[in-house]
Amino acid sequence: MEPTLIDRLKKLLEDKNQLITMVVHANPDGDAIGSGLGFYGWLSEQGYSRVHVIAPNSYASFLHWMPGNDQVIVADEKETRALELISGADLLVCLDFNGMGRTADLEEPMRASKATKVMIDHHPDPESNFDLVISETGVSSTAELLYECLVNLSDKDAISLPVAQCLYAGIVTDTGSFSYGCNNPRTYEIVARLIEIGVDGAHIQRLIYSTYSEDRMRLLGYCLSEKLQVVSEAKTAYISLSESDLQRFNHQEGDTEGIVNYALNIENIRLAAMFTEKEDHVKISLRSAGDLDANKLARDHFNGGGHKNAAGGRSYTSLTETLANFEALVKNESF
Ligand code: 5GP
Ligand code: MN
User: CATH second-level architecture of 3-208?
Assistant: First the structure.
């Protein structure tokens, strides 16, 4: 990491009594919550007295075990408090997203805030309207990048077990349990260090991935047996869920997470997609193999973005129309 970036971050963190508000992206995943709570824990332990973490909306219960989870302010539920902490912040730290648009209803309040704004993130094409941008697209996760920041701000012995657990959760979720985005010795060196600190990798794996409700497990089975569509000529497979499908399985936040990855496990499939019907839009998750650029697909056609092999977006037409458009689109591409 560039020393000047760390020097600038250090300078911005000089005052331990300033109001520091951290914000993560909407529909927060393990990397967003892990980075938010990892940084929150570290700052609290270092004696910063006014630190807060805001998530724009609620998130899956399999992330609720993280140390400090009860401190997260969900803006959807505590709007006044969240807006107060954004407008009154001295320092606004944006974690795991590359532009204010990723914070849903917090976008305008964040733009309007007079706070000094810092981005720590690993998505391509970061927006430049921040006072400090620490952005590395080659790292596995924001949690990995945050680890590098923390050890440069103090030293590696200043990372406690609760902080290490949060960072580990961020790395493990953003790499699909070390299966993509981490073909880099440095990720494993950091993970080794987190294990030395005391992280129990197998335990965290169970907390995140082996806590399915029966409904969630049956929903997965239904998706794979009844809802999977394969478009062989386009090397594409997709799954769609209507609102009534979701109701049938008593859908809870996070229940559909990870399902898209199964579609990419089919031999010769290069692009997988998952469409989930919401109240006023269709949520789209894309996964790709190799050089196929899911980020570009999400940006060009689905009002979204992300990484090359994992991206997402939205469609504002009906589920049926969205699926028809998607099929036509992939049949026209030469994967
Ligand atoms: P997921 O499919 O797990 O929801 O998201 C996969 C990746 O795509 C994540 O890195 C996430 O940040 C990104 N992503 C998901 N939805 C959106 C979106 O609506 N806009 C943008 N820019 N990125 C998204
Ligand atoms: Mn991330």
Answer: Alpha-Beta Complex (3.90)
